[in-house]
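Suppose a colleague, Dr. K., hands you the sequence of a protein chain of 168 amino acids and asks what its three-dimensional shape might be. Before reaching for any lab equipment, you can write down a predicted structure in token form. Begin with the sequence itself:
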Amino acid sequence: MIKAKFYKPDEIAAMFKDGMTVCPIGMTLVSASESILKALEKSFLETGHPRDMTLLHSCGQSDRKDGIQHFAHEGMIKRIVGSHWGLQPRWMEMIANSQVEAYCLPLGQIAQLYRSMACGLPGKLSKVGLGTFVDPRYEGGKMNERTKPLEDIVEIMQIDGEDYMFYR
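The predicted structure, expressed as tokens, is then:
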């Protein structure tokens, strides 16, 4: 018989280590684990850990004050990769001030990346983003001066003579 085990938010926050990648899902605050996000913020503010994490989001899980806004502290997140930035004023300020590495990718491609990750695939192949600011031949989705010299997180691949974007 399977027995459920329940954890308190602080216990879950203690499981996060420096340098990990966090991928909250949901649109705005739908499906947000607010108690866990708050516990992670509290841990960082009190101990300085976890730090230097990567935050990947597809739909801006925020409402201008909660959700992933709890992670908008310099040092807590080293790199943010996402889309749908309108409900994230603290993140937009940090990005504009180059306080975090920041990439903007198409919302639908990030959503499909979750599926690729679940399948153990190396990424997502698509024509979406070709010829736009996401295309590495242009800006590669890099949102600020801090990010411009960094590696591209998307690449161009050719298959049967046609260009595709590969989202890793």
